[in-house]
Amino acid sequence: MNTSHSRGTWGSRSGFILAAAGSAVGLGNIWGFPTQVGQGGGAAFVLVYLICVLLICAPIMVAEIALGRHSRLSPAGAFRNLAPDSSWWIVGALGVATGAGILSFYSVISGWTIAYVWFTATSAVSGNAESVNRFFEAFTSNGIVNLALTSLVLGATATILLGGVRAGIERATKTLMPALIVLLLILAMRAVTLPGAEAGLDYYMRPDLTRLLDVSVFNAALGQAFFSLSLGMGAMITYGSYLGRREAIGTSTVWIVILDTSIALLAGFIIFPAGFSISGFDPTSSGPGLIFTVLPRLFSTIPGGNLFGAAFFLLLSMAALTSTISLLEVPVSHCVDTRGWSRRKAVAIVTGCVFLLAIPSSLGNGAVGLFSDLPIIGGNFLDLMATIWNNFSLPIGGLLTSIFVGRVWHVNRALDELRAEGASFPVAPLWIFLVKWVCPVAIGSIIIATALVTF
Which helix (DSSP H) or strand (DSSP E) does residue 186 occupy? Predict the structure, then answer.
């Protein structure tokens, strides 16, 4: 078995916090959160979201980091080490598969954001809604270009991981995360000064109190919070395995949650003021329909819009890269731990396998093709992968992790890890109650609700 030294360790607590926050921060924060806010009643959704983060997601994050640090292993190895002669290792293996599965389509969308930095900077995408939509459809149906952009994203991610934990992941996220935050602040300040921004701010910050008791708002808020924090896919277990015992897990988790949530909230101060500055803006637009068709049309109508748009898509590219780093690290760490591969060999083989898995998602946006129209889900291959991994695999992993920590490894052993080296963890009774009872019930309800909507 590899030692923690050969696997690597974080050079500082700030490095771990920024890397973990970078894993959590991604495309979903920038467009997913504002979309859910628009659909869920504005500030009412934000309030429910914050409650979900504090009472459900933060406790699960603490549990995952504790699992990783105690075992000093990647997800599958961590579960096998703490529950030998059982089948719980499958939960860790599911996390490894989830990381690779999400990366296979996430890298495709990340490639789009890189291309749109150039498209918006050069005003290549402009005009009315119809022409912008045609441009996006033509671009995403070009399989060769999509494959090239996907390989660029995976190549950049692999290059960072080859540097190891400190020289690769930590150094990259220490640069990317502060730059991302600064760019977010600049864009937010520009957005709130646009004509009509007041209406967007009013929409974003005025709560519709009638929605507070809406079950669909709760389900959407918990789902968004859970996915936003990268829970259930082994990333926090893997990153926790590189964490020194002198670092307080509880304090680090608080900082990670604050950074992730703050970036999501800042994104709202960009999307809504900017969106309401043009006529016909639909705040409930989501996914590619929002960031690749609606927003470019917005950028073309404001002074300096090409630069504003290029900066926005640069922001998206940076946020995507901080997430792809952790997504690739999960299976890479697994191969280093369980197969004894060198990091270089693991990065090369895993990256190649993920690229092969990404090919159907890259080619699935054409008008005609094997991967473009799947009648079972009514979408393309990329939609299928998002449904499998985001909508089901992540929450199932989180549910099983909470059960494992609460009732198999047991919370008392987890508390010993959380209090290692005299670390303070004053909310222990509350954390035990949340992990053992509240988290499994809440996450289970999300899985059931998602299944009913999907099928």
Answer: helix 171-191
Q: What is the pTM of this model?
A: 0.91
What DSSP string runs through 327-389? HHHHHHHHHHHHH---HHHHHHHHHHHHHHHHHHHHHTTSSSSTTT-BTTTTB-HHHHHHIII
- Other Cβ atoms within 10 Å of 151 Cβ, number: 16
Sketch out the chain's domains with CATH numbers: 4-454 (1.10.4160.10)
* Rounded-to-integer distance, Cα 392 and Cα 384, Å: 11
**Tokens (6 digits) for 299:** 């950028």
Q: Do 350 and 337 touch, CB atoms closer than 8 A? A: no
Q: Which amino acid is at 365?
A: N
The pLDDT tens digits along the chain (455 residues) read 444 445 679 988 899 999 999 888 888 788 778 878 877 877 888 889 999 999 999 999 999 999 999 999 999 999 999 999 999 999 999 999 999 999 999 999 999 999 999 999 998 887 777 888 889 989 998 989 999 999 999 999 999 999 998 889 999 999 888 988 888 898 889 889 888 889 889 888 887 777 877 877 887 888 888 778 889 899 999 999 999 988 999 999 999 999 999 999 998 898 888 888 877 777 766 566 677 887 787 787 777 888 888 988 998 899 899 999 999 999 999 999 999 999 999 999 999 999 999 999 998 876 445 566 655 555 788 888 888 898 889 999 999 999 999 999 999 999 999 999 899 999 999 999 999 999 999 899 888 988 887 77
The tokens 């053992």 sit on which residue?
Answer: 436
Burial of 133 (0-12, 13-18, 19+ CB in 10 A): middle
Residue-by-residue DSSP string for 269-326: HHHHHHHTTSTT--TT--THIIIIIIHHHHHTTSTTHHHHHHHHHHHHHHHHHHHHHH
